[in-house]
Write a structure and sequence with these properties.
The structure is a single chain. By secondary structure, the protein is an alpha+beta fold. The protein has helices spanning 7-34, 77-83, 263-319, 342-348, and strands spanning 42-55, 60-75, 86-96, 110-118, 152-156, 161-173, 176-196, 207-223, 230-235, 237-242, 251-261. 28% of the residues lie in helices and 37% in strands. β10 (237-242) and β11 (251-261) form a beta hairpin. The longest helix is centred in the C-terminal third of the chain and has 57 residues, at 263-319.
């Protein structure tokens, strides 16, 4: 009697084939679609350092003072969903100790509000949705996913232009390794401002249109390779005033050799980067590998069971008790005696 193929072996074979198809889909389809800039972000990063700034109450530049840069990034989820882009509202405040906490634009040394719109996959700027200011480049608040060991164009908002960042190897931040990039900015004129003449060395004039200049002693950024999240940042801004047409700084508005992420901000950024990186690795590497191996094992086991079942059917058909031949040397009922020769058989039937 024909024995049917075991349903369990077919289930194993089918499940194994499914997992073998699923493994490359996770790596080539699901993971790339998981690499999208978030739209529901709400983070605060804090820089601290020492430097000089122009004290408007004392009408002079004061030195060796604590400086704090506070930046809040909040995603506009509604506009992001409608446009399909990452729409982020960014508020940045530069404060001395006297105007902390950074709550009012009137007390801060510098206070800006911006709206950044980027492609969620490439991180490139998209000029829509009330973007302010117009910006270019490859990196600013974050780098693209899968950061490469090469130079990047970083948008410097104070300069109003891109700055070439040079790759400088790797650096560990709070025990977590990222890719390090650096740059400097030479003095550039960024605008004009009407000020009393005495502030820029022209006391005979009540008011002059002074030139505003900006430079940066050094920019250092450390980015998570997989997610592009910045886990460490340090800047060295210098803003000055010059008399009209002069090539020398007459008044320092803000100057710091280095203002950097606080340890608390570093830890928070590292945690976010590690969590996101681990999720992407799980979807793009770990799960595809495990799924592929498990699929191969199940498919092989199912195939072996199917083949063994069919071989068992063949054995029963060829040598079983109900088969045409008998292996015990006895004659079939009504057949010739096993001892009868072929010659005798022929003679007896003639």
């Amino acid at each position: 009697m024909r024995r049917p193929t075991s349903p369990f072996s077919l289930i194993l074979l089918g499940l194994g084939a499914f997992l073998l198809v699923l493994a490359p889909m996770l790596a080539w389809y699901v993971e790339p679609r998981a690499k999208r800039t978030p739209t529901d972000i709400d983070t605060i990063t804090v820089f601290k350092g020492k430097g000089s700034y122009f004290d408007t109450k004392k009408i002079k530049t004061v030195h060796d003072k604590n400086l704090t840069v506070t930046r809040q990034v909040r995603g506009d989820v509604a506009d992001s969903e409608e446009s399909g882009r990452a729409v982020w509202d960014v508020v940045t405040s530069v404060d001395p100790d006297t105007s902390l906490p950074a709550a009012s634009p009137h007390d801060a040394l510098q206070w800006t509000k911006e709206r950044w719109v980027t492609d969620r996959r490439t991180n490139k700027p998209v000029h829509c949705c009330g973007e302010e200011p117009y910006f270019e480049g490859e990196a600013y608040l974050k780098f693209p996913f899968d950061v490469e060991k090469r130079s990047y164009r970083w948008w410097d908002n104070t300069l109003g232009a891109t700055v070439p960042l040079t790759y400088r190897g790797t650096k560990k931040v709070q025990g977590y390794e990222g890719l390090r990039f650096t740059a400097t900015v030479k003095p550039h004129k960024t605008g004009t401002r009407q000020v009393p003449g005495r502030l820029v060395g022209q006391p005979a004039k009540s008011q002059v249109i002074a030139d505003e200049y900006y430079a940066n002693h050094g920019i250092e950024l450390v980015a998570d390779r997989r997610t592009g999240r910045i886990i460490y940042a340090a800047i060295g801004p210098r803003k000055t005033l010059r008399a009209p047409g002069s090539d020398k700084d007459a008044r320092v508005l803000l100057d710091s050799e280095r203002i950097a992420f606080t340890p608390a901000t570093q830890k928070a950024q590292v945690k976010l980067a590690k969590d996101d990186s681990d999720r992407l690795k799980l979807v793009g590497e770990t799960l595809p590998a495990l799924t592929g191996v498990l699929g191969a094992v199940l498919a092989l086991a199912g195939a072996v069971w199917v083949v063994r079942g069919r071989n068992g059917e063949g054995a029963e058909g060829d040598g079983g008790a109900g088969g045409p031949g008998r292996g015990d040397g006895t004659a079939e009922p009504g057949g010739p005696h096993p001892g009868t020769s072929e010659t005798a058989l022929h003679h007896s039937t003639m």
